[in-house]
Amino acid sequence: MKTKAKNTQKGILIFLLLVLSAPGLNSMFNIVQSAGLQGAIVPEKDTTFSIEAWWTGGYQHQKEKFLNDNIGLRPDLVRLNNQLDYYLFKKLHAQQVVLGKNQELFEDTYIKSYYGQDYIGTARIKELMQRLRFVQDSMQRVGRALLLCFVPSKGRFYPEYFPEYLKASYTERSNYLELRKQARAAGVQVLDLNGWYLARKGKTAHPLFSKMGIHWTHWGADYAMDSLNHRLEQLLHIDLPDMSFGEVVCTNESRGENDIERALNLIWPITQETLCYNTLSFNQTNKQKPKVIFVGDSFFWTVLQDWIPQNCYASFNFWNYFNEIWTNEVVDGKAATTHIRDTDWKARIAANDALILFFTEPNLTFYDYSGMIDSLYQAYGGS
Predict the structure, then answer these.
(1) What contacts 316, CB < 8 A, 6 or more positions away?
(2) Rounded to whole angstroms, how far apart are CA atoms 274 and 59?
(3) Quick one: angle between helices 74-89 and 58-70, nearest 10?
(4) CA-CA distance, 236 to 259, in Å (whole number)?
């Protein structure tokens, strides 16, 4: 009996040693190919040895971080840890991502914006919209159009699913509501796709938002862009290519709408959902294609993936957060992205037919959006 007990103890010890040494062995021999982690992850860089770095401790500190990020099986162990935390405690490991009711995922910035917790004040919003009207008038005098577009917010669409601990007293003092009010008072051309979505809540054949994502679904974005194109026709007095909606294909294979769920790095998805996709076609016969610049946030990627700008406009620029510039050529892999700071961006606007400011609610005051309006105002002669 003692021999059997000793053998059992040895077996357990050997098993534990193998488990503990597995990451190191995998680093050396690359036995198992681990899929990478998702989300905004910046890998730690390796460091080189120097006497100075050794004595200050900088070498050891950076080497430790590098080895921690690159040890074998780390992505799989991270997913295992995240899955256990979610299963046992409903704890999520992704910045700003929260789990709401009905298994709806949110980013907390959308919830804060809904409650006006990032409100920049009526005076500042009024000033921004008056400045934008100045820019709009300046562009109109040379035959160019400006359109302020409020993109849908999942937080405003589904407040009933907020987690209880993030709920607050609702107020009309929010950036979106005040911007919409002051824009109309100033005479700024507005397309309120946020309101467009809210008016259709519970009335559409297919989901407008995914449970597992923060952006609009492809199905909803296609119809929103059709409305935007009709508005452009009115502003530019032209007839754009027509979008035709063919067969709808529904599947549980997401085309990217589960973006924030992927960033959680779980082994199994929180839930399976069915999403639907339009089969789009474009009638371009005897149509006029404008040159358009979109300044906006990540909601534009959905539009780009459905090839709407490529088919409806002669050319397009997407100025991501008024920073990184994407063009037809960049999307096709024929050119590298450039940055606003490195270009004559006012000349680019003058060379296009329309400038569309394309932001969702929490980004209306972030990422230099308000600074962008100030820059436009100054570029067109405001003081």
Answers:
(1) 291, 292, 293, 294, 309, 310, 327, 328
(2) 50
(3) 80
(4) 35
Query: How do beta strands 354-360 and 145-151 pair?
Result: parallel
Q: Please name every residue paired with 1 in a beta bridge, in sequence order, or none if there are none.
A: none
Question: Which of 42, 33, 18, 31 is closest to 76 using CA atoms?
Answer: 33
Tokens for 246?
């063919």
CA–CA dist 184, 163 (Å, integer):
33
User: What does the pLDDT look like over 347-367, one tens digit per residue?
Assistant: 999 999 999 998 888 887 654
| Residue whose C-alpha is closest to residue 270's, from 94, 16, 31, 58 | 94
pLDDT at residue 12, rounded to an integer? 59
CA 70 – CA 328 distance, rounded (Å): 36
What would the two tokens of residue 315 be?
């050319």
pLDDT for the residue numbered 31: 53
Q: Where are the alpha helices (DSSP H) in 90-121?
A: 108-114
pLDDT at 22: 47
Q: Are 312 and 354 in contact (CB under 8 A)?
A: no
Residue type, 312: C
The reported pLDDT for the residue numbered 167 is 94
pLDDT score at 77: 79
Conformational region of residue 119, where left means phi above 0, alpha means psi within -120 to 50, and beta covers everything else:
beta
Q: Which stretches of the chain drop beneath a pLDDT of 70?
A: 1-44, 46, 53-54, 57-60, 62-73, 365-370
Q: Which of 223, 240, 220 is nearest to 232 (CA)?
A: 240
The whole-angstrom separation of Cα 232 and Cα 356 is: 10
DSSP states along 149-169: EEE--HHHH-GGGS-GGG---
Which tokens belong to 362? 């929490």
Nearest to 213 by CA among 266, 155, 165: 155
Provide the residue type at 179 as one letter: L
Backbone angles phi, psi at 65, to 5 degrees: -65, -40
| Per-residue DSSP letter, 304 | H
Torsional class of 307: left (φ above 0), alpha (ψ -120 to 50), beta (otherwise): left
| Whether 218 contacts 278, CB under 8 Å | yes
* pLDDT at site 69: 59
Q: Where are the domains of the chain?
A: 98-379
